[in-house]
Design a protein that fits this description.
The complex is a heterodimer of chains A (468) and B (277). By secondary structure, chain A is α/β, with parallel strands linked by helices. Helices cover 43% and strands 15% of the residues of chain A. Chain A folds into two domains: 203 residues, Periplasmic binding protein-like II (D-Maltodextrin-Binding Protein, domain 2, 3-Layer(aba) Sandwich); 216 residues, Periplasmic binding protein-like II (D-Maltodextrin-Binding Protein, domain 2), CATH 3.40.190. In chain A, a hairpin with a 2-residue loop joins strand 6 and strand 7. Chain A is globular. Chain B is 72% helix and 0% strand. The chains are: A alpha/beta (468), B mainly alpha (277).
Amino acid sequence: MLRKRLVALLMVSILMLTLVVGCGQKAENKPDAEGAKDTGKEKVEISLWLTPQWKGVFEANEEGADYDSFFKYAAKRFSEEYEDYDVTVDVQVIAGDQRDELLNVNLNGGTPPDIFYESVFAMGDYAHRGALVPLNDIVDDTAKKDIAQNFWDVVTFGDDIYFYPFSHMPGTLVYNADMFRAAGLDEYIGGENEIKTWSLEEFEKILNTLKTKLPKDKYTNAYPMALFALNNQGDTWNLAYLRMFGNKFFDEDGNIILNDEKGVKAVKWLKKIYDAGLTNPGAESVSSNDCNAMFQNQQLAISFTNSVLFNNLKADMESGKVAKFDARLANIPSESGEPLTFTYVTGSCVFNTNDETRMKVSKDFVKFFSSDPELVKASKNGVPVRTSVAEEFKSEKPLFEAYDKNSKYLFNFTGNVPGYSELRQVLYPELQALYTGEKTPEQVVKDYQTKGNEVIQNAKKNSVIYNK
Amino acid sequence: MKKKIKRETVDIVANIIVTFFAILNLFPLYWLFTSSLKNSADVVKMPPDWIPKSPTFSNYVDVFQNQPALRWAFNSIVVSLVATIGVIIVSSLAAYAFSKLEFKGKDIIFLVFISSLMIPKEVMIVPLYRIIQNFNMANKLSGMIWPNVATAFGVFMLKGFFDTIHDSLREAAIIDGASEFQIFYKIMLPVVKPGIGALFILNFVQVWNDYLWQLVVGQEKSAKTLMVGIATLMQDLNPNFAYKMAGATVAAIPMLLIFIFFQQYFTRGITIGSVKE
C-alpha cells in the first residue's frame, strides 16, 4: 500500500514538475541575439535565417566555430558601427529541407524573417511571389565592378536585384585520375588545379575505355559515369546534360523550349550511354547522394561535384575518413566543344515585413556584411563572387583561378522563371520513364516541355515580376 | 512418447522461426547503431561492411560538438512526456464519458470527434500556428505541448477499452454510493490500465516524432527539439549519412527505454482492446 502511494506521489511530482517546466519554458533570453546594449538609440530587432553553409567566422578551425559564427560576428560589428539605431540581430540556422515549410508558415503567419541567406535558386520563387523587396538601392558601382555581370544576372528578376551575391559554388564533373591511369587514359587527365575540358568525342572514348579497360580485380563493381534520376537532388547536372547538344532550354519569355532536334538528341545520348552500360545501372532508382558515395568508394570513375563537395572530399581523404585517391575536376562536355558550367550563387535577400524601419536596417545590414572589406573575405569558404577576394586568395586556393576562367561558360540554369521549385518535380519522373524504357526520348522532351510550361504559366499568373 | 517428441520438434521449429524474425526486426537497430560508427562513405558501401572495420565515435562528437544537444534532448523529453500525460488525462475522461455516461447528442459528438482523425495535421499548421502566436506560445515548449494534448485517437482507443467493462460494475458502485469521479478513478481506470499503457507508448512516439509542428513552433536554437536540432546540422548539398545515423541513434534511445518500461501494458493493451464483449 505504502509502495503504491509512493509511486503515485512520484508520478504526481513528475507530472507537476513537467507541467511547470513545460508550460513555463521559454527560449533562453535570446542567446543567439547579437549586439544588444544600451546606447540611447531607438532599439530595432531583426532576424536573420540561414541554411548551413560554412563553420566559423573565417575558418572552420576557429574555437567554437559553428554555422552562425560569421553572422553573429557581423551582427556584433554592425551593431557597434551602425549610427541610426541600436540593432539586435537574431541569427537562426535552419536545415535546407526545413526552409520552405518554415518560410511558408511564417509568411502566412505574418512573421517572415527579415533576412535570409541562401542559394538564390532555392529562393527565386519568393521574389516572384512578392515576398522579397528589391535591393537595387544598396548595390553601388563599386560592388557592380567587383562582381562579374554573370552573377548579377542570376540575382536579377525582371528589372530588380533581389539578392546581394556573396559567394558561389560552381558545379562541374569530378573524375578519379587513378582509375583513368589504370584504364590507360593518362592523356585525358588534366592538372591538379585545372578544370579539364574534353570534347564530346573524347568523353565518349573515355567512357568506353573505362568500361572495357578498367581492371576488374582492382575496381570491383565499378562503372564509368554517374547517372541518377531518383528525385530532384542534383538535377542541375541533368539539366546541363540536356543542353549538351546546344539546346537553350528557356526562350526569352521564360518558356521551356527543350522539344526540338537538339533537345531530343541530348536525351537520346543519355539513353544511349545508359543502355551501353557506360553508367551505373538503375539510374531511375539511384539518387545523386548514392552516386556521390559510390564515387567516394571508387565505384564510379566520373561523377558530379560542386566546390563544397569537392573540398569536403579532399578534407575527408586527408582525415582518413575516405580512402585516398586522385580526384580532379572536369567540365561537362558539349557537342560544340564549348563546355557547360553552372554555379549556385549564394547571397542575402530581405523579406517584405511591412515594417519600413526593419526593412531599412535589414538592407543596411546586408550591404554591410556583403561589402565590408574584412567580412567579404569569409566568402573564400565558397568561391568568392568578388574578383578582389578571389585575387587575394588565389595563391591559397589555386582552384579559384580555374573557376574564374570557367565563368565565361556559365549558364543560368533556373532561367529565373517563376515556379522553379515546382518545375524541379517535373524532370526526374520523365527521366525515370526514359531509363525504364516506358517513354521514348521524343516523348520525354515533349511531355517535359508540356508539363513544365504548365507549371511556369500557372506561376506566372501569381508572379509580381511578370504582372508589374 | 511419439506425441511428446513431435511436440518438442514443433516447439524447436517455432522457436527458430520466432528467433529468426526477432533478429530480422532487430537488424535495423543494429544497422543504425553500427552505421553511426562508420564514415559517411562506408555507410552506403557496396558490398556493405556488416561490422564496422574501424569503428569511431567521431560522428557523435561532430554532431553534438558546440551544439546544445542536451538542451534539445531535454526539450524533446519534456514535450513528449507532458503532452502524453495530458493526452491520457483528457482522453481517459472523454472516453469514459462517451462509453458510460448518457447525454444528449453523444453519438453525434463522438462522430465529430472521430471525423477529426481524417484531417491531416499539415492542413491545420498555419491556423494553429497563428493561434499559438496569439497566445504568445511561439518558441515555447507549451506551444508544442498544448495542441497535442487533446487527440481524437486517444479518445477512440480508450473508449474501446471502457466499452469492454460491463455496466453492472458501474451500477454496483453507484448502489454502494460511489460518486461518478470515484467510479472513474477507482474502478474503471485500473481496469483499462493496459490501454493507458499502450496509449502512452503510441502517443509518446507520435509526439517525439512530431517533426513538422516542433519545427514550426521552436524556431529559436534553444527552443528546438532533438529531431529538429539535429536536422539543422545537415548541409543541403553535403548530406553526411553517418551524422544522420548518429543523430537517429541518440533520438531512438528514449523511445526504446519507454517501450521497454511499458511493453507489458502495450502488449496486453493491444490485445485486450481488440476484444469486445
